[in-house]
């Protein structure tokens, strides 16, 4: 079993739609959680950290459920520019090592 | 402020050839990392460094060596390239326990 699992998609949604991605992780000792965004043929970039109480950044909402060991990302009012791959990332309890999920691809259509 | 840069951007090798990938950062970060990214696999950590002169193995270190002689540079070497090392290689850097910033990647094709 992969340490961090994501549905690879693609998720095809129209502009303005709301879309949600989930991610599960296997290491219950994981300390920190993130969503990264990766555009085609580009490097990953931090989208947002995920906090236990849930957090929002504009149209993006991230939530963490430690008991079930899953993380979610909700995107409201999707834009064409949201088309990308979203990587679920987990940091363990030693050092600053990150474990990446395989990514979920989102395609927003006009 | 260039952030993290990688050289070269693209390279084609024949099986058995060697090469070195260079990563440079200008953010005075202590930690540096080398990852590879393959379709459907996500990024996997090859080697990392927590400071000048120190290196450690990551998840998939076999077939690679690294050196961190200067704080701002992290080199990844392939002594004898194999087709299984065809991949996109990303370097990253971070301050201690902080966000990792990635370079633009190096696409390597081994024939």
Beta strand count of chain A: 11
Q: What shape does the CA trace of chain B take?
A: globular
Give me the Rg of chain A, rounded: 13 Å
Tell me the quaternary state: heterodimer
Tell me the fraction of residues in β-strands of chain A, as a range.
Answer: over 45%
Reported for the largest beta sheet of chain B, the result is:
7 strands, mixed
Helix proportion range of chain A = under 10%
Distance between the termini of chain B: 36 Å
**Average pLDDT over all residues of chain B:** 94
Shape of chain A: globular
| Biggest pleated sheet of chain A | 6 strands, mixed
Order of helices and strands of chain B: EEEEEEEEEEE
Largest interface here, residues on each chain? A-B, 17 and 21 residues
C-alpha termini separation of chain A: 37 Å
Structure write-up:
The complex is a heterodimer of chains A (about 110) and B (about 110). With about 110 residues, chain A is mainly β. Chain A has strands at about 5, 10-15, 20-25, 30-40, 45-50, 55, 60-65, 70-75, 85-90, 100, 105-110. In chain A, the strands form two sheets. In chain A, strands 2, 4, 5, 9, 10 and 11 form a six-stranded mixed sheet that branches. Chain B has about 110 residues and is mainly β. In chain B, the strands form two sheets. In chain B, strands 2, 4, 5, 6, 9, 10 and 11 form a seven-stranded mixed sheet that branches. In chain B, strand 4 (about 30-40) and strand 5 (about 40-50) form a beta hairpin. The termini of chain B are far apart. Classes of the chains: A mainly beta (about 110), B mainly beta (about 110). The interface of A and B includes residues 41, 44 and 98 of A.
